[in-house]
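Researcher: Last one for today. Full complex below.
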Amino acid sequence: MAKSPETEHPNKVFGWAARDKSGLLSPFHFSRRDNGENDVTVKILYCGVCHTDLHTIKNDWGYSFYPVVPGHEIVGIATKVGKNVTKFKEGDRVGVGVITGSCQSCESCDQDLENYCPEMAFTYNAIGSDGTKNYGGYSENIVVDQRFVLRFPEGLPSDSGAPLLCAGITVYSPMKYYNMTEAGKHLGVAGLGGLGHVAVKIGKAFGLKVTVISSSPDKEDEAINRLGADSFLVTTDPRKMKAAIGTMDFIIDTVSAVHALYPLLGLLKVNGKLITLGLPDKPLELPIFPLVLGRKMVGGSDVGGMKETQEMLDFCAKHNITADIELIKMDEINSAMERLAKSDVRYRFVIDVANSLSPP
Amino acid sequence: MGKVLENEAFGLAAKDNSGVLSPFRFSRRETGEKDVRFKVLFCGICHSDLHMVKNEWGVTTYPLVPGHEIVGVVTEVGTKVTKFKAGDKVGVGCLVGSCGSCDSCTEGLENYCPKSIQTYGFKYYDDTITYGGYSDHMVCDEGFIIRIPDNLPLDAAAPLLCAGITVYSPLKYHGLDKPGMHIGVVGLGGLGHVGVKFAKAMGTKVTVISTSESKRDEAINRLGADAFLVSRDPKQIKDAMGTMDGIIDTVSATHSLLPLLGLLKHKGKLVMVGAPEKPLELPVMPLIVERKMVMGSMIGGIKETQEMMDMAGKQNITADIELISADYVNTAMERLQKADVRYRFVIDVANTLKPNPNL
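Model: Here's the assembly. Have a good evening.
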């Protein structure tokens, strides 16, 4: 007889799960494995709410295995460490991000790019190396191989630092990989949500000039006065868009809805790069002429490897970069998801797990 | 008013968007102090010429004398010309001028200069319209003249001035020129066949990707490609998934990028050198999950064009051509429209282009 989520593993755990594509989250009893010799058990303090969580609970991408316990921006305290664990000890403040497993022996893994390993396992809604389903951070605790645990630097707050574990690395990794870090260069950030607002902060920390590109004029004040962007470009203002043609070295495109690439490509200088991070559910239209005439490039990126995620956390701690968050209780998650669907959040919800997750 | 241009020239021009070419007399400027004047021997017919004579891009002004794969022999040089002399074998490609001071020009990338002047159909500094190589002689600034290596046959070298540099530049710029790499070439026409030759000469393994099985024998036995795959055959595509470091896509018709992206390894590069008019569908997953890239490229700067030509000289790379007489040019254009050429027409200008005695 198949084991239930509660009996699958030796240690009972409580969390919240979505059980079908309505996406409605509710209390859920399940279980986790014993802490193995390479494992760290993390008592979860905070968990960020990523847009991917929303896509997954609603099965937008068609591969959700219900029940789904989302959450991959997890910060907590190590309560147990296995005997082979060298990097962490009990009581350490740690983070767990988007990935909790990989083959650890392929070319990507050897280069510390576990995110590109063909056997990479996500923190939730994926099958772990023991063949059972992974459940994420909307729960009391999580047990993770030490390779996929991050040290949370001194000075980086647990609540507003949590979203860096996905949003932060998602923008930091391409900025390094595609050489977008030379001080004085001009970065455009398209979309001002969870990813976009962190991209502005990290871009400024690299010494870039940053322009936010948005369809919402009402975000201008925030972008410039709170987030520190140098300028703001409204895509629906043809005169300003025209004046900005050929002025940007790179663009980080965080917009996940289907949107036009042509005007963004026009903003790039010759040799400019547009890196798309959002995951629209349909292909985008790619005009080829602008690429050819200006030797421009469109690329993408997917979170980051563990080494660079740690590097990113240390960088953010050094530059006092955190996410702008709205702290919520666990039982407020469904209204938060409704608001997230309408982009009604400045700019990331974070669940105060330790103080609000309690079994009924 | 205006400058009096005394030097008579004759050529073939399109006079309207039917694209039909007919004899045309015009003038070229005097040889300026930095100019090189040369008798045109051969001129390649590029697909761009066809687009332009029919005004398919909406930028044509008539009369238009096309031709930007021009080779010939120098007859006169200006007083400040240092690099060329009468008798030298030279060529001119797609550009005859640029601003000389922008970032692109400073890096030897005149092709990306916003003020670059194309060899035909563009306004020159003296307010005249540039006329291309379907004509008896050319005058061009020394900075845009390419030396043709002595050992290369001039007729078969002509297409390198556009087709050659168009594939050479991205292979170098994107690091796709390392021996042992696996490069795909999509489309086997003027650009594609030269792409195969340059990529092989760089020591890479080359797979031609085509919609038509009929080109397999040519690709492998004549052009030297290592493999050939038919893009419409899902099994052939599947077997080659994730095997290529880079792909040079020469196809300008609308086509699907998804299978091409699938052929790339992680971090692979898809370089578009054909320019489809309508946008193509871009599946975003391969870019995000496998960090693949789509980029464009357009001809090359003058320095790298010379570099390309020097490499062609050392490695005996030329285009496969069909030499035609000037009076065949309209038929050639019709055949080019149907891709009925292996793989570039070249006009035997010196021997067959005569001034029309009736004009």
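The mean pLDDT of chain A is 95. Chain A touches chain B through 33 residues (CB under 8 Å).
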